[in-house]
Amino acid sequence: MDLHAWITQQVDAVEAEGRAVLIDPAPLLHRCEADRRILARHRLDPNVTYEPACEGCGTYGDMGLSNTDNLNDCPELLDLAHAHGITPEILAGLDRPQPPEPKPRDGRRLGLGDILATPPITTSDVPAALRGPRWKP
What pLDDT does 133 receive? Predict the structure, then answer.
C-alpha cells in the first residue's frame, strides 16, 4: 500500500464513521469530498514510465521533467496524510509506488528482428526535388 492508497483508506474510514456517529455529518462529508478531489488530481502519472511521478504536481523545464519524482514525496499528499494522522513510522512502512508499464505503440513493441527487417533507405528513394544538381544513381 502506497501513500495514495493509505490516504484513500483513511478518508473512507472517516466518512463511514461520520455517517454513523454525527447528527449532522455534512461538514465532514464535504471535507471527505475535498480530500477525494485532491487524491484524484495527485495520482500516479501514466504518461511518465521511467519514474512513479505525481500527475498533479506538474512538470518543469524544456524536457517536461516531473516536479515530484515519486508519488510518496508529493507535498499535497503529505499534507493530506498529516491531516489524517500519519506518523513517520507509518510513512516509512508504506510501499514506494512503481512506474507504470510503458504502453506499446500500435498495440505492439518493435523487436530487433522488426528493425533489422526494415529495408534500408537508398539514394533512389530520395525524391527528385531533394537530390541536387550533382546527383548520380
Answer: 73
| Of 3, 104, 100, 94, the residue nearest 45 (C-alpha) | 100
pTM of the model: 0.67
Residue ranges of the chain with per-residue pLDDT less than 50 = none
Q: In whole angstroms, how far apart are CA 123 and each of 67, 68, 126, 129, 137?
A: 45, 47, 5, 12, 7
Tell which residue, 79, 12, 9, has the closest CA to residue 42: 79
- The H-or-E segment that residue 66 falls in is strand 65-66
Question: What pLDDT does residue 47 have?
Answer: 82
Q: What is the largest CA-CA distance in the chain?
A: 89
CB 44 within 8 A of CB 71: yes
